[in-house]
Structure formats: C-alpha cells, structure tokens
Write a structure and sequence with these properties.
The complex is a heterodimer of chains A (about 110) and B (about 120). Chain A is mainly β and about 110 residues long. Chain A is built from no helices and 11 strands. In chain A, strands 2, 4, 5, 6, 9, 10 and 11 form a 7-stranded mixed sheet that branches. In chain A, strands 1-3-8-7 form a 4-stranded antiparallel sheet, with no helix packed on it. Chain B is globular and about 40 Å long. Classes of the chains: A mainly beta (about 110), B mainly beta (about 120).
Chain lengths: ~110, ~120
C-alpha cells in the first residue's frame, strides 16, 4: 500500500497568513493527488485534484503543486472560513490512502 | 450537477448486516469508477472498497475483505455496499465517491454498530 505522510498535523495561523501543507507519498503517484477541506460534521470538500487542478467554485487562494512523491497545498491568504482540517489523498491505485490530516487553527 | 446521495445507514448489532445505497445523478454513472470511504468518529478518512465503471472489477481494503461486497446497477445509477458480520469498529460515516474528471463525494450515511 502507498503511505501518505502529511505535515504538520496542526498549524496555528492568523487571518492573512500564507499557509503551506505538505504531503509525501511512499512511492510515485504521478499527479494522482487530491486535497480536501473538512469541517466538523460535514463531508470532505474537494479543493484540488490531479495535484494542481482547482475544483470548480473553489477560491483561487487555494493552490496545489508537486508530482511523483512530494506535494503541497498552499493557501495564499488565510481567511476566517479556512479554519478546518485538510487531507491529502492518493488515487493512483487501490487501496486509496489518505494523509493523517492537518488541523488549521486560529493563532 | 453531479449528485451522490447515500442511504441505508443506521443501527446494527454486532454480527449483523446492513446494505448501503448511493443514488447518482448528473453524470454518466457507468463511466465512473466508484468507491466507498468511511470516517470513524473523531478519526481520519479510510477507503473501504472500489468498483470500476463498466467491467465491474472490485477492490477491498483488508478491513472489509470477506465481509463487505460492493456492487453497482448501472441501469439504476446506483452503487451498493453490502456489509455483513459487522463489528463495533465498523461504526463510521460512510461516503460514496465517484471518480471521473474530478472526485465527487456524497454527504454520507452514519452506520452505528452496537448492542
């Protein structure tokens, strides 16, 4: 199975900050990487697919980069609505695997 | 607009069974690979099972192998997950996910396994 290692597990930041979350795959997944935002009691919301493609309707302050084994999610200017938990996911092969999650908290 | 609507969750006893359904609309269902992903209370996301679009090849996580069966009815645009021999650790919200150009998620259905 492909292991996804996400860091950090918790991130404290202020409104307006630039935030970066990293995800590493244990083997190459090409660009088959998605990023999600999840709030309590809600389904995960797709932000980025194929490593860098912005899902329709998602604000442009979210961006994704990387390929192979190293990926990043960047929020260019953190907004109040962005405080949530973020997950990466590889869908290169079954079993799909997810990162452990990054909780973005208010500093 | 792609929509996925899960149903069939609820309370089951240990050793019991449940059948989850996922009704799809807004896209060509038979062209999409589909999966079930679950999230136990307070935990992360765990892939459970997947099925290809037209050929219906199936895949399972070790946690459900031999107990869970994924299937689809392309004439009804519906995905299923038959869960047998349920355990307390199967308690989770179960989401169906469609893989096309992007990934589409339903809102989830809660399964609680408890006596």
């Amino acid at each position: 199975d492909i292991q996804m290692t996400q860091s950090p597990s918790t991130l404290s930041a202020s409104v307006g900050d630039r935030v970066t979350i990293t995800c590493r795959a244990s083997q190459s997944i090409s660009s088959w990487l998605a990023w999600y935002q999840q709030k309590p009691g809600k389904a995960p919301k797709l932000l980025i697919y194929k490593a860098s493609s912005l899902e329709s309707g998602v604000p442009s302050r979210f961006s994704g980069s990387g390929s192979g084994t190293e990926f990043t999610l960047t929020i260019s200017s953190l907004q109040p609505d962005d405080f949530a938990t973020y997950y990466c996911q590889q869908y290169s092969s079954y079993p799909w695997t997810f990162g452990q999650g990054t909780k973005v908290e208010i500093k | 607009e792609v929509q996925l609507l899960e149903s069939g969750g609820g309370l089951a006893q240990p050793g019991g069974s449940l059948r989850l359904s996922c009704a799809a609309s807004g896209f060509t269902f038979s062209s999409y690979a589909m999966s079930w992903v679950r999230q136990a209370p307070g935990k992360g996301l765990e892939w459970v099972s997947g099925i290809s679009g037209s050929r219906g090849s199936t895949y399972y996580a070790d946690s459900g192998k031999g107990r869970f069966t994924i299937s689809r009815d392309n004439s009804k645009n519906t995905l299923y997950l038959q869960m047998n021999s349920l355990r307390a650790e199967d308690t989770a919200v179960y989401y169906c996910v469609g893989t096309g150009m992007t990934l589409a998620w339903g809102q989830g259905t809660l399964v609680t396994v408890s006596s």
